[in-house]
Amino acid sequence: MQLTVAPGGRTGGLQSRLFARLDDRLTVDDDRPVALALSGGGDSIALMRMTAAWAQKRGRPVLALTVDHGLNPDSPAWTRFAGEAAQAAGCAWRGLVWTGDKPVAGLTAAARGARHRLIAEAARAAGARVVLMAHTADDAAEADLMRAEGSTLGRVREWAPSPAWPEGRGLMLLRPLLGERRETLRAWLRDQGADWIEDPANADPRFGRSRARQALADRAAADLPAEAPPATAPRKSGAVQPVRFSSEGLIQTSRDIEPRVLATALVCIGGGSTPPRGERLARLIRRLRAGEDFAVVLCGARIEAEGQAVLMMREAGELARAARPDLDLIPGVETVWDGRFVFEADEAGWRVGAARGRLAQLAPSDRAALGRLPSAARGAEPVLIRDDEGAPVLASPAVRWRDLAPERLRLALGETTHEDDLIAPPWRNAAEAPIFRD
Fold first, then answer.
1. Cα–Cα distance between 231 and 29 in angstroms, integer?
2. What's the pLDDT tens digit per position in 311-323?
3. Strand spans (E) along 129-201
4. In angstroms, rounded to a whole number, what is the distance separating the alpha carbons of residues 128 and 124?
5. Among positive and negative, which fits the CA dihedral 237, 241, 247, 251?
6. For residue 307, which of 326, 288, 323 has the smallest C-alpha distance?
7. Which of 272, 285, 259 is nearest to 336 (CA)?
8. Mean pLDDT of the residues in the chain
9. Which of 21, 252, 330, 391 has the most crowded Cβ, counting Cβ within 10 A?
10. 3-state class of 433 per DSSP?
11. Taking the model in full, what pTM does it have?
12. Element (H, E) at 222
């Protein structure tokens, strides 16, 4: 482990700029903690120390979360260092460990996914709605370069939903340092006499991020400055997207839907975590624009276009091919089914599963409710089953549920700008007719 301590440096209002960005997004005087991803590196240590100062002034607790990936023999020492630094700054802290087998191929992506899942689970368990992450202008420029060279990394945005699904449901990531340079943060730390960790992997050319970092450093040395992203992400344009949800999880839209909105809607309807990209998405857009009538499946979602009407729904056949078992509902514990619905039971003895193969067992009133849906959508609806093997039902007073897709789409499309907007929709415990709502 290499620790860096050095004096000197000028940082000109860095902390004031951070305070302004946090004030722009976060609530003050709230008992809910603000979660913070703390690796122990210079960027996250700077963010943690400044956030702790902001929180003391604004009446917010801070929970720092450190993930030990188990990929370096020094990682336990790094985790201890991060914990001690957080506690010294007055933050609560929790260490998290990525356990289990590690893949040989795609290790970096797997580690990134595990980190997001662990942080999301810990943040939600603590009651946090926002996780701070210490990405800088340099990180955004590196990601842009990697994407230009074929990487599937997403764009680094200041305010975006957690990519972990369903662990990160309802949770936003805030990157308040996205307009700052990495060296500015280290100069601020030197002024503070603070320590941080330099991970040797950051200079290892085996990793795409390290190669991008070196390429940008070479460009800077050749007086070819890289463009830095804006200090804050652009806000939504205010245009209303042509997307409406039904109470059963269908989307009604129009043929002129924007590609990004379409991709996001498909992944929300399909309940997965990876939106469609590239030629498959482009081909679907071309067919919609051309006015074709068709039905296709993409990302586990079925798209039916007929005339000017376009419907998107979960593809029931995907549930059968995946052979997903019914899920037991533990009283008082949220259970996410198929990445689309969350259930919570008041009493033991309930399971949730797909309507496919059970439609004939439903009561006439439930069959009538599902009969209002397109035939292809009916088998993908969830039903509740008692352990005593009674007839399945669409709803019960003993079980609450929420459709996750509408809120997920709203957050992904940037229709929230502040922590105060992150209010989960109410629970339901009764079946509803499929009435489209704006």
1. 25
2. 999 999 988 787 7
3. 130-132, 159-161, 172-174, 196-198
4. 5
5. negative
6. 288
7. 272
8. 86
9. 21
10. coil
11. 0.87
12. none
